[in-house]
Design a protein that fits this description.
- The protein has a domain of 206 residues: Glutaredoxin, CATH 3.40.30.10.
- 23% of the residues lie in helices and 28% in strands.
- It contains 7 helices and 14 strands.
- It has a 10-stranded mixed β-sheet. The chain has a 4-stranded antiparallel β-sheet with strand order 11-12-13-14, with helices on one face.
- It is globular, with a radius of gyration of 19 Å.
- The protein starts with 8 loop residues before the first helix and ends with a strand.
Length: 298
């Protein structure tokens, strides 16, 4: 993609070759609220909802560190019936949990509060979120919406556009929940391949930002194992141990057959030079990059 006369953070990041590894925000719960009107730049926080209900939802989500995202179908299609809400939870066993409802009045969103306190129902198909929050960052629209269109045409029941998920410079960003898997640097074509492989139980290192139940060095270790030994399912590898030392981390990964039973990965962190990392933020800042410097089967 080429652009002229305006700064686009995703173009700049790809030109620099910014690493996406280890950049998935940590978290294991998500609140989705279908909102068919315009999205404020700060998403749920900026909605003019009934204040009491909004405060209840925000406090309940904050208590379990759930991320609240506004969602909509691509092109605002499929608008039959009342808008929906969902509470999605990652489960390390793979029995991910979901609870869905509908709302018409602002006060109906208070149903989210008890849903956040309940375990939810196991099973359910994954939800594919595509960040298309253009008012937050232009690249989320320029790159996210074509990916959202392509994915929606292929899997109309699974795919939603969503508000900011983090990492504007890695647009187009796709998040599969409650699997808790972040992908980045996608376009319409690669997004189809990545999601098709994900749904088939084959997560590849290419385009993988990380697993949200892991911290950045652990995300980098798992990505390195996938890169070395090939794609695997979401729960085929687990972090068995993480030891911090002066130079970085020593991380032990265990695998299910046919994956290697044990892999030891050494990860080091470094800082990049200062750059403008978002379209809207003129200030420059440095990013942390996590490099896997050693991958050794046990």
């Amino acid at each position: 993609m080429t652009t002229t006369g305006r700064f686009f953070c995703a173009d700049a990041a790809r030109t620099r070759g910014d690493s996406i590894v280890g950049t998935a925000p940590h978290g294991t719960a998500w609140v989705l609220i279908e909102y068919r009107g315009g999205w404020p730049a700060n998403g749920f926080d900026g909605l003019g909802l009934e204040p009491g209900t909004k405060a209840l939802v925000f406090a309940a989500a904050q208590a379990v560190r759930a991320r609240v995202l506004l969602v909509r179908r691509h092109g605002r299609q499929g608008l039959q019936g009342p808008p929906r809400w969902a509470v999605l939870r990652y489960d390390a066993t793979g029995a991910h949990r979901q609870q869905w409802g509908t709302w018409g009045r602002d006060e109906d969103l208070a149903q989210i509060v008890p849903a956040l306190a309940a375990p939810g129902e196991p099973g359910g198909r994954p939800v594919v979120l595509v960040c298309a929050h253009g008012l937050h960052d232009a690249c989320c629209a320029v790159r996210g919406r074509p990916a959202g269109r392509a994915l929606s045409e292929r899997w109309p029941e699974l795919v939603w556009e969503c508000t900011h998920v983090g990492g504007d410079r890695f647009a187009a960003n796709v998040v599969v929940v409650p699997d808790g898997v972040y992908y980045g640097n996608l376009d319409a074509g690669s997004s189809l391949t990545v999601v098709e492989e994900h749904l088939a139980g084959r997560i590849h290192a290419e385009h993988l930002r990380g697993y949200t139940d892991l911290f950045p060095p652990q995300q980098a270790a798992v990505a390195a194992v996938l890169d070395r030994f090939g794609p695997a399912g979401r729960h085929d590898y687990a972090v068995a141990g993480t030891v911090r030392d002066d130079d970085g981390w020593r991380i032990r990964i265990t695998g299910r057959p046919p994956a290697p039973a044990v892999v030891d990965v050494e990860v080091r962190a470094r800082r990049t030079p200062r750059n403008q990392l978002t379209c809207r933020g003129p200030a420059t800042s440095s990013a942390v990059v996590y490099d896997a410097v050693s991958v050794r089967p046990g």
